[in-house]
Structure formats: C-alpha cells, structure tokens
Amino acid sequence: MNQSDYLKLIKLEDKIHRIAIEELNLVCDPIEFDVVPPIKMIEIMAYRSPSNISNWKFGRDMEKLRTIYERIDPGLPYEVVINCLPARAYLMNTNTLTVQCLVMAHVYGHVAFFTMNKWFQNSRKDILTLLSEANKRFQMYEKRFGIDEVEKIVDIGHALQLHCDPFSNETENEKRERIFEQKKLENRVSSSEFSDITSYKEDKVKEDIEMHNQRLWRQLKNTTPIEPTEDILRYIIDNSSILEDWQRDILEVLREEGIYFWPIIKTKYMNEGFATWIHEKIMNKLFRDGDLSTNTHGEFTYSNSLVKAQHKTHMNPYLIGSKMWEDIEDRWNKGKYGSDWEECYNLKKRKEWDKKKGKGEEKILNVMKGYTDWFFMHDFLTAELVDNNDLYLYQPVDKGNIIEYVRTNHSAEDVKKIIVNSFAHSGIPKIEVVNGNFNNNGIFRCEHRFSGVELNLEYAEKTMNHIYNAWGKPVILITKKGNQDVTITSDKDGVRVSIGVTPNTKPPEFYV
C-alpha cells in the first residue's frame, strides 16, 4: 500500500464504521487500527498480546512462527484484535487496500461481539496495562530472585490459568457463612401448639440447637475448600503455605489473564463466524456502492475463500460459524421455526417455505448477546447444516504413495451430537479441588469430573508436578481411563500413575 491507499483507507474505515453501526445495528467500543510489518505481527501472535510478560515459551513460539513464515509458508493472519478499551487491531502492511477493508470489517464484527456478548461484560479492558505493568515487576523479581525461579512460577501459572471460575466472587469465608446459614435452617425445630404437653422443653431445644450450630461451625472451619471449586489457581494462591508474596503476585496476574481469555475460548466459533458474516455484509455493501472497484472483487473473493477454507481433518470456525449465522438469518427471515415448521414433513413445502417474517438479523443479534459455543451448537447446528457443509468425520487411509480420507459411517445426526459434546468444556477438562487437607495431612486432592473424554496423561502428569511445586505437599488427582479409576500422585518422589487404586473419596459430612 502507498500513501494514496492509506488516505483512501481512512475514508473507507469511516464508511465501514457507519455501515456497522447504522445499518447492521452493532454496538462497538472505539477501535484503534495499527498497520504493522510481518515481524511485529509474528511477535504479537507469539506473545498473545502487544505487551506481555517475558517468558521462554513466547520466545520459542516466536522463533517457530518466524521460521514457518520465512522458510515454509509466508501466509500470516490478516489481523489480530485485542479486547481492550479502546480495542486495538493490528493489520499487516503487506495487505492490499481491498484486503485491508475486509480485515477492518472483520474487526468491527469482533469488537461488536466483545461489546455486546454478556460473557465479555466483566473482561479486563485494561489488560494491556495490566500485563505491561506486571512485566516491569516480574523483571525486578528476576533480578532479585533469579530468572529460573520466576520462570518456574510463570510455568505454574500458565499450566493452571484456564482452570479458573470467572464468575465466582465469593471468598472462602463468605461461602462458609452461606453454607452455615443454610445448614442452620435445615436443622431448625418448628414450634407446635402441643409443645406444652410434649417432653421437649424449650430451653433444652435451644441448647441442642446451639450445640449443633457450634459443632457445625467448627467442622466448616476445618473444611477446605468449603465446597468443590474449579478455580484451582485461586485456591492455591489463597491457601498455599509455601508461596511468597512475589510468587502470589505472578500467579494473580496469570489468573487474571486466564479469566480474560475464558470468554474468548468459550465463544471462538460464534465470534469468528459472526465477524465473517459481518465482513461479508460490509464488503458487499462497499462493492455495491462503488467504494471499492469491481476489478478487485476477485481479490476479495479469493481472500474470503482462504478464510473459509474447508478441511477434512478439522473444523474451520470461520466457515462453520458463518454458515450457522447465515442459516439462522435465512430461517428467521422465512419463518422456518416454531411448531408449524417442526411438524411439516412435506419436503416440497419445506423447500418452498417462506413466511416473509424478516426477523433474521434481529434473531442473530439476540443470540449473539447471550450464547457460548456449546449452547450455540446445541440449539442451531442442524443435521442439514452438517450434510450441506460436509461436516462428516473422515479417517486417513494409507494408499501407498498417498493418504486418502474416507468418510466414516456416522450419520448427520450422529455427527451433530459428537460436535455438540465436543464443546461441553471447550477442550478444558473439568477439574475440581475437593479437599485441601486430605487425611488431615495437607494433601491436595482434586477430581476430574469425567464426561467420557480421558485426560492426556502426559500433560496431566506435568500439570500435577506444577501443582505440587506451588502447594508444597503431596497432590492427588482422581480420573478415569475407560472404566477404571486412575490416581495420579505428585510428591517429593516425582509423579506416579496408579490404575484401579482410588483413595477414599467420601466427601465431608456435615451435622444435620
């Protein structure tokens, strides 16, 4: 792009903004666009942010991406968007004017999603400042305690940062008081009009209740955590007996970063699909209005086809997400919903169905505001979408000189169920801390809420070692492999895996 192109781009960005806000009814935080060279884009991708802490993993990833870019594949993402205030979008300086317009339109889709979707409402909009200031402190820690000690704690934080609970605001004491009040109510003795002729004396009842409440409170004080928690990092920060303040500071920052990424991970298909749906709407409008030359429409079509490329081995969120939004728009425009539609089995009628409802964009915005990928897939992925977009499962078959992909026997409905189930936890296993003082020895015990997907044992063992290094006492994880219980233990002697042996898993009992 030359200087003239940049001047055009400024005017086109204003038009893109007006289309997004006035015609597509989007609500967007302010956006700042930066045009950067490839090496800067590689750095932002590797560090996950334009400002982040220093860590060996980021340097490793940067060298890997740079090697791929320079020696294997010169293709890079057209943009990177940061959900902050104002939102920051980074564009490649190698993009053409037409591609920059596509990218800007795509960015408006993302920022509208960040702004309007309820799961992002508590996101740290100061994330760049948070990480930049943290990096300064962490460099001081490196000088004082040594880079190896700092890296060790950062590795712990990275391993556990997605095992968080962004929506739990209760402290352990607040939970304890809540449960105490609940248990007291369960033990309340109601008065009776016949109490004067029963053997129960009022003073005796009050005494029994008081003794019960004292015992209950003592037991609750000794129960940790007060109820199972998925927020492993929060529990370790608050309860580890070996962490120093500087180490807790590092883990707090990385937990905040994990909470920042939580809604991004949980809405990836919705978000990328929505941004793709938006950029297609805006680009078509720019071409219709003559803001972009029809001579460059082929360039847009080609770039868009790369974004929405079909793959046999994995799902493309840009393709699948946008196809689902298009399907919602079509169905709600034509009234393909409700009992009349569901109870119509005439194929000809279904094909010609059009009630002229015109509620497609309204429905899309309503869904966009409140869903995550799991519920999105559950409610709006249909067998027809699976079939029309060839989302079937394929297995590689070695044919000697070539690998062919052969479709499995799963039906469209089978594939839909498999896809929906795969989004249940967004690839993050549900692990809960159930006892931080197991056997009254300070042993850290957690359980995998098994839903049919086994843990990667190699990854689990390394993570258990990280927990042990942060906790300082033995750590136990209960999971499953097939139908067998699996116990993973990490202590001073290393990590061990036992199959078919499970420590006593009986939960604490409260007086009732």
From TrEMBL:
InterPro entries: Spore_V_R, SpoVR-like_C, SpoVR_N
Domain SpoVR-like C-terminal intervals: 429-480
Domain SpoVR protein-like N-terminal: 8-424
Any Pfam family: SpoVR_C
Protein name (database record): Putative SpoVR family protein
Organism of derivation: viral metagenome
